[in-house]
Each structure stands twice: as structure tokens, then as C-alpha cells.
Amino acid sequence: MIARREFITLLGGAAAWPLSVRAEQGERTRRIGVLMSTAAGDAEGRARIAAFLDELKKLGWIDGRTARIDMRWPASTQEVRKYSAELVGLAPDVLLATGSAGLSDLLETTRTVPIVFVNVGDPVGGGFVESLARPGGNATGFSFTEYSVSVKWLELLKEIAPGLARVAVLRDARQASGSGQFGAIQAVAPSFGVELTPIDVRDASEIERAVTAFVRNAKAGLIITTGQMTLVHRDLIINLAARHALPAVYWNRFYPAAGGLISYGPDPVDPYRRAAGYINRILRGEKPAELPVQAPTKYELVINLKTARALGVTVPPALLARADEVIE
Q: What's the whole-number mean pLDDT along residues 175-185?
């Protein structure tokens, strides 16, 4: 027989368990597959997945207890395809896909397993969903940015370097969003007095060769659009901008954090937290076809003043005042 004091202690401990975890007692362990867009050692990727796992835990899905979470970290395009097939082969209850490339390969592998995606540039244009309001298939999630935001990149570049006459736009050739972002910038380029040059990003040697060929004279700059390849090769792109003294605008804060000049774009971590909510709803019975694709809710402007000084760029005080983060 358990003593009264011991019984009360045990009862109190049970009451402290998360209600959602206790509700899962007796239910089968659910399987969640995760396909990232970076290699396992990538610090940004680790920060994103940590936010995802933390939010899942709050919702009662704990790896090794109420869920089994299988993660894959591709270091190349070939590994994206390989890991897509691996994850689907594990018969998951739901999948998390990062970026257009991973989502595309997963959808080629399965049209039945529910997929929640994050940081996909153009879900409708890429053929991933029928519409944002009613995705219609087995995938839904969180788009990365609207094409109109691309215009902001050119605006910022001209604000920080008014004399620019030529701008190269680095885009991921595999993704529909690359062409869409370039198109939005191209439509307004004449009003900013700049000539645009698209550079398709596929591998390191191509990037270096194309950027070096682009730098024929002064008054040149770079815009780096969203995509897996611009993410994977970000250190090379930042180094090329520094080597050729090119002012550059990037789509995410981890570029200026690594030495790039300036970035403007949505918070890339927040969608992972929100994706955990969608996965929770799917595991509890809702259909991805009926969950609307959601747009970003947080945007941030980040400026690296150390890089600006190295490039000889004077950042206007008004621009500094608008920054969410200034790296000294």
C-alpha cells in the first residue's frame, strides 16, 4: 500500500505532465519526417529546426515519446532526391519540407502523405498547390515571400549606393520563384536607372565565373534572391561581393551576419514554429487540402556597418534608423 504522502506526491507529479502528452498515452507513436535544405552542420538550419522541435514539444509531440522524428540534411541536389525517397519509404504520418526543391522532390515521390512546407517562394506558380486559400492536394504550409518584396531589394541597393548603373540578380535556376523575383525587379529597373543581368545559380564554379564576368567596371551591385542554391553557396557569394567591392542586398539576415552588406526579408525561423502548429492539426485529423497557405508575418532589415565601411559605402542615417538590427 502506498502511504498517503507518497500518493499525494505521485498525484502531483502526474498533474504536472503536459495535458497533450497525457492525452497521447495509449495512442500509437506518430512518425514525422523532416527534409531540410542544408547540410547537418549548418548553424542556421539547426536554429530553425530547434524552433520547430520546441513548438512541437509544447503541442505534446516529443521525439522518442509521443512521436518519432526522422530528419534528413541534404548537402547536394542529389541528396535532396535521395532523402525524399528515404523519408517517404519510412511511412510517415506527415512530412515537413523546407524550400521549393525539397517540396518538389517529395511531391514527385508521394501524393498521399500529408506535407507541410516552409519557406517556399511561389507555391501556386510552382504547381505545388491549386490556390493559397484551398491548396487542394496533400501539401500546404508557409510561403516565403511575395514577389513585390523583390522590388524592395533594388530600392535598398539604390538607397545605399545611389550611383549604381548595373545590377546582377543571382537566382536559383531550379525554382519558379527565381524567375518570378527577377521579373518583379526587371519591371521597375528602368525607373531606378539600372541595367539588370540575371545570373543562374547552380554550382560554385558557375557563380564565380558569372560574377567575375559581370564585374567589367564600377557602378555595379548585386541582388541575391531566395533559393536553396543561394543559401548553400552564401559564403562564396559574400566573399565574391567583398573581393570585387560590390554592394549587395540579400534576402535574409544570416548573410549580413556572415559579412554581407544588407538584407531585407521575412524571419526564416518563425515559419518553423507555425509549421509545428499545422503538423499538430494534421496529426489530429485535419487535411492539408483544407489548411490555407499562409504568408510571412515578420520582416526584418539588417545592416552590417563593418562591411559598409570596408566597401566605402555610407549608409544614410534614415536607413539606419529603419533597421531592425545593425551589426557593428
A: 84
